[in-house]
Amino acid sequence: MKTDQAKPTCLECGEPIKGRADKKFCDDSCRSNFHNKTREDSVDLIRNVNYRLRKNRKILEELNPKGKSRTSREALLKRGFDFNYMTSFYTTKAGKTYYFVYEQGYLELESNEYALVVKLDSIE
Fold first, then answer.
1. Per-residue model confidence (pLDDT) at position 118
2. How many domains does the chain have?
3. 13 domain residue, yes or no
């Protein structure tokens, strides 16, 4: 007895699939391409966030070669520092908040000045 069911087609290229009835792709290349496209937006987001974090870290490291220094908000912004991107923060008992980009950190002082620090316990 012959049924008139349509053959399944590849979700990526649309070609008829040969083999198991539950296959969704005609080959590994189509499967890989399909899944890469579905993850593309999240991969771009992660890539952009990581780029900004690396850039912020590099700026702090360049402005703080000895592990403890001061700089101005203007100097940070001039180099392209983005205050929206950090990896952690620490609030002291006195209520001061240090912001960190990996091990490089900063504390906002008065008059748009910043204290730059390195969190040594994170380096091993």
1. 96
2. 1
3. no
